[in-house]
Amino acid sequence: MVVGKMKFTFQKRVKLAQGLWLLSWLATLGGAVTFTLGCFLKTELRRRGEVMDNTDIHCVPNTLMIVGLASMGINYFASRICQDALDPGRFPRWKTFLKPYFGCSVFFTTLMLISVILSYAMKGSLETSLKIGLKNGIRFYKDTDTPGRCFQKQTIDHLQMEFQCCGNNDYKDWFEVQWISNRYLDFSSKEVKDCIKSNVDGRYLVDGVPFSCCNPSSPRPCIQYKITNNTAHYNYDHQTEELNIFIRGCREALVNYYMGLMNTIGAVVLSVFLLQSSVLASVRLLQTSMEAVAGQENVEIETEGYLLEKGVKETFMEYVDPVLKLLLLNQVTPPEAKPEAGATGTTTTTS
Amino acid sequence: MAVLKVTFTKTNRDKLAQVLWVLNWVSVVTGVTLFSLGLFLKVEIVKRRELMSKEIVSVPNMLICVGLTACAINFLGGKICYDCVDTTKFLRWKLLMLPYIICTFFFTFCILVGALMCYSMRNDLEESLFLGLRDAMRYYKDTDMPGRCYIKRTMDMLQMQFQCCGNGGYRDWFHIQWISNRYLDMTDSEVVERLRSNVEGKYLIDGVPFSCCGLHSLRPCIQHQITNNSAHYNYDYRKEELNLNRRGCRQALLEHYTQIMQSIGLIVLIIWLFEVSVLTGVRYLQTAMENVLRLGDPDSESDGWLLENSIADTARYNFNIIKNLGKCYQVDDDPNIDVPSSSLQAQENVPVKQIPVAR
Q1: Measured between alpha carbons, how far is A59 from A40 in angstroms, rounded to an integer?
Q2: Alpha-carbon span B20 to B102, nearest angstrom
Q3: What is the number of other CB atoms lying within 10 angstroms of the CB of residue B162?
Q4: What whole-number distance in Å separates Cα of residue A37 and Cα of residue A269?
Q5: What residues are paired with B302 via a beta bridge?
Q6: What residues of chain A lie within 8 A of the CB of B161, using their CB?
Q7: ipTM exceeds 0.90, yes or no
Q8: A140 within 8 A of A71, measured Cβ to Cβ
Q9: Among the listed residues A175, A181, A31, A187, the one whose alpha carbon sits nearest the alpha carbon of residue A109
Q10: SS3 readout for B173-212
Q11: Where are the bilayer-spanning segments (chain B) (predicted)?
Q12: Nearest chain B residue to A223, by CA
């Protein structure tokens, strides 16, 4: 049961080869673009790696880079094949190369599609990673004298200013954490002593936020301490004041930013995938139509080209079997065991 | 005595024409580069227009004009050089070539002027920034006045982005009232006392806006009562260096723009050198082609030069032309007037022509 059978005249074959040559160069460009996008995404993820707990999300840019490089290789060979295709003298030397070539190409093209799906599917993992990373960042904000944590303050401040966000879920996260170090608290002051005594864990909690939460678009100078206390500031109501500090949480801001980035990249990679698939299909059709010409005297006859000789499942098994054999997963039972089994079988029946 | 004479064979001329054709197209690309550099500079200046008292338009506009002219001139040059390989086609352009070369010479001079302007913009810019920032800080609190309501945001974003504070330093904020009266409790005795103690009735404090806070500080930002050591625990404002941004915004912006201008100036100088070399090539090609036409044989060798006579002679010749342009209505040199000649020899040498009489 042949899949995708088409008739090709000589002129059609020539046009197919020419179109394929152009398409393969476009697809090579597409592969380079995919690789660049993968590098860019990886750089962006690494830049803010300090607020991420794990690097699971890095599988997306890694896959994109691998697929981009593979795509450039596949399309380079596709252009060489179509250059030699119309010359019956040069085409046969590609014969043994074509089967593994198609196997690899289909594998990497499917991988391209998988990477696009991954970029949407990894949203949950990214969100969890950011949640834990930001929580730690806020907890260690005050530890500017502890080695390994001394840059957390700078990282969180920079992040909040750049993404115009405050805290993990929102600004109230800062109320639950002691973000002012004990080094800068006057323990002889009554106010400080009261505050610490009133807290169960002995932490100095304030209803205030760091300066990086301040919104530059606010019409009044920033109120960052005693935020929930209306009487502490003139003409101030914290429930109606929206522009004073950033209301958005940093986790939401970062997730939106990265998902936006990955959506754009996903759209571009999807179009490269379509281009790549059309290149592969054209190479296959060209190959099969040229094979029918081989050995004929008149090279200008009409031939048939097809995508798959057998059905999809049979072709898949044909490719997968050698791979499995290589991995020794599909072992063939040794022939001596069979007659022995047969002999024991007969002996049991007779006795 | 020609200046820098070079002999060209036919193949040399053809090669020169082809090379110049390619170089002219490369020059079109450099013209586009010049145009985009001018556009980039214009955008950078317009972005911070609120912080400058006088917008500097001369340099970016010059670069944009020069870039567009470069594209046009080099496009024409490319066409001319393409036709120079064939002597018949060259005849079409023969009369246009000398004016074209003169125009290109002045145009290359403009590129050089543009490059030098990039380096000289600094003083104008510094003054403009000083006045602009001073006004911006003064209007920082006027977020309710139309036309000034975004100055606070602009100033805050500037101080955060460039990690700077105030005009020359953070103390500039101590001399102006940056907290609007709308947010001051006039019934509070402390506020009233402070207003009364100031000559102009301004509410001045030793505090700075939040955007002055340093990112690298180890402790939470101290932005109010900065000079009062006893107001904060374990604090000495003279030793504390990371708390606020030390650099003034005028200095920061000046450095930013100087860097841009120096890079642009360097690129424009390189483009100028390239244009001069293309111009020299076109001049050699023009003179070589004209000499070939003068000799009559299109395949022969011909000489090419920069100037036919020495520089002094050419200058004198051109100066005389310009002088005589102004004398077109004067009577003195009119050859038709009969001026009695003083020497006898001159009289004898003049041939007397007889008018033929019909018989």
Answers
A1: 14
A2: 17
A3: 17
A4: 9
A5: B8
A6: none
A7: no
A8: no
A9: A31
A10: HHHCCCCCHHHCCCCCHHHHHHHHHCCCCCCCCCCCCHHH
A11: 20-43, 55-77, 97-119, 264-285
A12: B210
Nearest CB among B153, B178, B223 relative to A216 is that of B153
Q: Are the beta carbons of B41 and B60 closer than 8 angstroms?
A: yes
B185 touches chain A (CB under 8 A): yes
Contacts of A218 in chain B (CB under 8 A): 152
CA–CA dist B208, B94 (Å, integer): 71
- Look at residue A8 and give its three-state secondary structure: strand
- Report the alpha-carbon distance of residue A344 to residue A346 in Å, rounded: 5
- CA-wise closest residue to A2 among A324, A314, A212: A314
The β-bridge relationship of strands A303-305 and A6-8 is antiparallel
Please check whether residue A272 is in contact with residue A34, taking contact to mean a CB–CB distance below 8 angstroms: yes
CA dist., res. B266 & res. A308, Å (int): 60
**Which residue of chain B comes nearest to A231, CA vs CA?**
B185
Q: How far is CA B323 from the centre of its chain?
A: 33
Q: Which of B140, B117, B162, B127 is nearest to B265 (CA)?
A: B117
Which residues are registered as beta bridge partners of A325? none
Q: Considering only CB atoms, which chain A residues are within 8 Å of B204?
A: none
Each residue's pLDDT expressed in tens, for chain B with a length of 359 residues: 677 888 888 888 888 888 999 999 999 999 999 999 999 999 999 999 989 998 888 999 999 999 999 999 999 988 888 888 777 777 888 888 888 888 999 999 999 998 888 888 888 899 999 999 999 999 999 999 998 999 999 999 999 999 999 999 999 999 999 999 999 999 999 999 999 999 999 999 999 999 999 999 999 999 999 999 999 999 999 998 999 999 999 999 999 999 999 999 999 999 999 999 999 998 998 888 888 888 888 788 888 888 877 888 888 888 888 888 877 655 555 567 665 655 544 455 555 566 666 65
| CB environment A104-138: b (16+ within 10 A), e (fewer) | ebbebbebbbebbebbeebeeebeebbbebbbbbb
CB contact under 8 A, A221 and B213: no
Tokens 């673009």: give the residue.
A33
Rounded Cα distance, B328 and A98, in Å: 85
What is the maximum alpha-carbon separation in chain B? Answer: 131
Q: Find how far residue A134's CA is from the centre of its chain.
A: 22
Instruction: Give the torsion sign (CA, B115, B117, B123, B125).
Output: negative
